[in-house]
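Predict structure. Chain length: 239.
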Amino acid sequence: MQEILGLVRRCIEDYDMIQQGETVAVGVSGGKDSLLTLAALARLKNFYPKHFDLVALTIDGGTPGMDFTPVSDFCKELGVEYVRVEVPIYEIVFEDRKEPNPCSLCAKLRRGALNTAITQRGIKKIALGHHYDDAVETYLMNMLFEGRIGCFQPVTYLSRMDVTQIRPLLYVREKQVRSAVNRLQLPVVHNPCPLNGASRRQEVKELIAELEKKYPDLKQKIFGGMQRYPLEGWGTVKK
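Prediction complete.
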């Protein structure tokens, strides 16, 4: 966990993600990435020089078979307030609209519900669980499927909602996430979504894994190129 905390702290400082006295919501889906983000920030707040408060927030989309009780119990252990908001996303996407490509709509509805939930509580900042590998995959997905160079930003200000999104796990690789989650025995909630593991992101993940057999430093070069270029929002504040 010390290695994870070091990477998270460096990322937060490089991009000036957290300010003194503010409340940061953590979007907790129940997956490994969001749970590690919550665990890392809960530990970091105990010694970080800028005081901040944490709230964990789950958008329960109504997917059958998902139980967030272990997440609630984990938040109690951390001493972090836990909020679960029920939104009928599964019903809208799979039953009402029967979307042929549901992932995009599901993500859009989830993001909207998350931003609405925090603004209703007067919170202006939310931490998301995107990590190093997510950034590389998103960059390649944009090139392969949309013909554009781009990726989500480490810090994103949404002017319409007056909400700032931060991604403090951005320097942490997925294999480090898996290792930390296993060692800490974090309460990962199984996602029974019928399309889980069958998305375009999974296709790109498998493509990268194949390319890495020949180019083992592929991710490092892509990520480094994103920072050196830099893409919009990717130039670090701390030099």
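Summary: The two ends are 25 Å apart (CA to CA).
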